[in-house]
Amino acid sequence: MTTSLVHRDSTGGVATITLDSPHNRNALSSRLTAELAEHLTDAEQDADVRVVLLRSSGRVFCSGADLTEARQGRAGDGPRAIVGLQRQIATLPKPVVVELAGPVRAGGLGLVGAADIVLAAASVTFALTEVRLGLAPSVISLSLLARLSPRAVADVFLSGRTFDAAEAAAIGLVTRRVPDDELADAVGETLTELRKGSPQGLAETKRLVNGDLVARIDRDGEEAARRSAALFASPEAQRAMQAFLSRPRS
């Protein structure tokens, strides 16, 4: 029996969706993205769910694209699936809150960018490492360009450097940075406030807030997916990914 990589638990009007693929640090494999999309659909259709909480098990929220799949030519429709996830999160008629207790890298930032509210522990770090692997953050730019200032985009996209939760909050990537030992309470308080909204009020307000973001995804998503797939298949990126995957692991 295959173990699920994503779990969902619904209680008290909150659907908690947990990424649970520790063997590859919650990389966006074809299985994980498919399971996440399915759980988001189920949460949307559940009339008892008022808010969705997206979190992770283990030390890492998401390490980005599954480079093993990409290197072996098994990524399939991966870039298009990540475009779809961002659109699904942005158009879900219920608020999506992301709880970050561990690092986020590359493609994982697309989930962060598409979410409505993001609470990050102070120790969390971020990096858009695509440029160092002969890639570009093509598909996740769909949501990140709507959140970050142009100067911040140029900095973190081009440098690939690691930055902390304080900077992430300052540039608009996350809603709020909180001390690690206060994260659970901050998430709980946020969910409590969101549950006070009426279903219609929440849905229509999300439509209002995310209109430009969804329009960008609909306009540019297919081209971004094609560009991303071409970069992953390029000789330069294939060599860089092989070198990365061959590094000794601590």
Characterization of this structure:
There is one protein chain. This protein has 250 residues and is of the alpha/beta class. It contains 11 helices and 9 strands. It has helices spanning 30-45, 67-71, 78-91, 108-114, 141-147, 150-159, 165-170, 183-194, 199-209, 211-233, 235-245, and strands spanning 6-11, 14-19, 51-56, 96-100, 104-105, 117-121, 125-127, 162-164, 176-178. The strands form 2 sheets. A 6-stranded mixed sheet has the order 1-2-3-4-6-9, with helices on both faces. Strands 5-7-8 form a 3-stranded mixed sheet. The mean pLDDT is 95.
List strands and helices in order, with pairings:
Elements: E1 6-11, E2 14-19, H1 30-45, E3 51-56, H2 67-71, H3 78-91, E4 96-100, E5 104-105, H4 108-114, E6 117-121, E7 125-127, H5 141-147, H6 150-159, E8 162-164, H7 165-170, E9 176-178, H8 183-194, H9 199-209, H10 211-233, H11 235-245
Parallel strand pairs: 2-3, 3-4, 4-6, 5-7, 6-9
Antiparallel strand pairs: 1-2, 7-8
Helix pairs in contact: 1-3, 3-4, 3-10, 4-5
